Amino acid sequence: MVLLYFSYLIIVVNILILSVGYVANIAFIGLFLGGLMAIGTDPIILILGALLGAGLVAKPYKFSVIYLWLGAMFLTMLVHVILGTTKVMVDLVKFDALLIISAFIIITTSFFRPLIADMTEDFEKPTTKKAPK
C-alpha cells in the first residue's frame, strides 16, 4: 500500500513542478520537460521502467519503496554506462523517467487487483491425500 501511495506522490509532484514551471515560464523546467519527453519515450527506458514496476508488483517486499528508488538509481547508472552519457542533467531526467514509468505500472496494476482477486477466489487450492497403509 505504501508503494501505491509513493507512486501517486511521484506523479503528483512531477505534475506540480512542471505546471508551476510552465506558469512561471522557467527555462530550466522547460529543459527538464523536453528531456523527459525525449528520454521517456526511449524504448530502453520504457522497457526497464516497466520491468522495474512489474517486478515490484509481482513480488511485494516490506521495503518496496526503497527498492523502487534503488532500482531506478541502478538502472540509471546502467544506462549511463551503456550509452556513455556525459551530462548529469541527462541522468537526472533518466532517473525521473524510470520513476514515472514504474509509478504508472504500479498504479495501473492496482486497478486490476480486485478483478484478479475475484477471478482467482473460485479456484480451490489442491489438497494432497496420503496413501493408505
Number of strands: 0
| Topology pattern, helix = H, strand = E | HHHHH
Distance between the termini: 48 Å
Query: Treating each run of at least 4 consecutive H or I residues as one helix, how many helices?
Result: 5
| CA gyration radius, whole angstroms | 20 Å
Quickly give the structural class: mainly alpha
Strand content: under 5%
The main β sheet shows up as: none
Percent helix, as a range, is over 70%
Overview of this structure, please?
With 133 residues, this protein is an all-alpha fold. Helices cover 80% and strands 0% of the residues. The chain contains five helices and no strands. Helix 4 (64-83) crosses helix 5 (88-120). The chain is elongated. The model has no long low-confidence stretch (mean pLDDT 86).
